[in-house]
Amino acid sequence: MSFSELGLRPELLRAIADSGYDTPTPVQTEAIPIVLAGRDLMAGAQTGTGKTAAFVLPILQRLHESPVELDRRAVRALILVPTRELAIQVEESVQTYGKHAPLRSVAVYGGASLPDQLRELDAGAEIVVATPGRLLDLVWRGSIDFGAVEFLVLDEADRMLDMGFIDDIRMIISLLPKERQSLLFSATFPEAIKRLTKTLLREPATVQVTPPNSTTALVDHVVLRVEDSHKKATLSHLISNGHVTSALVFVRTKHGADRLTNQLARDGIRVAAIHGDRAQSQRIAALEDFKDGRIHVLVATEVAARGIDIDALPYVVNYDLPRSAEDYVHRIGRTGRAGVDGVAISLVSESELPYLRDIEQLIGKPIPVEQVPGFVSAPRPRAEGRSPANGRGETAVGSRYASRQSTNRRTGPAHRSSGPRQTRSTGSGRGSWTALPGERTSGS
Ligand code: AMP
Fold it and tell me: Which domains, ranges and CATH numbers included, belong to the chain?
């Protein structure tokens, strides 16, 4: 299947070719004809499947095919997303795919200057990409007119519900014309989403590109058993020794994110944090620095990282395991994207084992427990009476890590050789490591 067989206009095909894509992803192959045919759609697709283009391309086409003269404030397509980062990225996709047949678009999201967004809206925009809260602020100010909305997209619908946007979403829907086409994209389908689809969608076509609650086959999952007090040293070791090159590291709290960032920075690692307490400009700058390889590690909280789109991200590290197994699916959706393999490494302490079991149940498979190259993180000394990690055997993972280094486009060998200092090395070559308290070296 090629993009031209999907029935897209030449201007869009040119923009797709400019982006370097030659083959549509499964969600694009299935969803684009459905949207072009005017049907409502419920799509099970997580970040990394190419879902953005699956709705942006056909909407651009439909809007172009039926140009209308409207008041400046009238919006024709409304795309709701959970976070400002995703709003910015989706709007960038609108610009990218629409560059040879431009339509006016704007991203509106909280935490950024309201007057600036008002000015942009005043200039007129057929397509608005918005987070729900800020959008409603603008509606109450009379800055947006919903009377001409033809398309509504809920992107990452499950995340929006998790973030407490359900009332805002219901309010927004109640303000829209009844005659419209609605599309819902979600990685997971908890009960609340199923209820929402019943009121939102009319006889929807369904597309499911990954089994519900599953993870992409391109991601290798690894558990490293590490107690909390050793997690920072373990992560620092993996990065300093080049086992992990460029990683998005998830922590649970903002405070934890700052603390880890400072600690890694002290170890000479180029690192930045994104979380809700950081200014929007700082978050954008950190994301850009990470994408461009100026920093190697981006430490993020769940919410701040939602929907961020980074090509060829080789590693996601769960520094803390998420309390909800569905969050695990979302987190690791940041790697193994667009055909590029990824590794999801989870540092799991004893107290987190119940969460690990939930995750394994949700994704439907056990996650192998492996050793950190160069040292043994588990089993714990027998005197403590613990069995080897999770009751499963451990294998060394040196080859897995090494293979990822060679596929990392942003931080090649040059980065590593001039990169972070090895701060705890015994100095005897790759994988050398000062044994952590309570651990023994592998003897290799
Ligand atoms: P998304 O799931 O929309 O966040 O997209 C994930 C990544 O896949 C983005 O970086 C897109 O630029 C990229 N992408 C989207 N469609 C294709 C395609 N047909 N071929 C290759 N990459 C794609």
Answer: 3-208 (3.40.50.300), 219-435 (3.40.50.300)
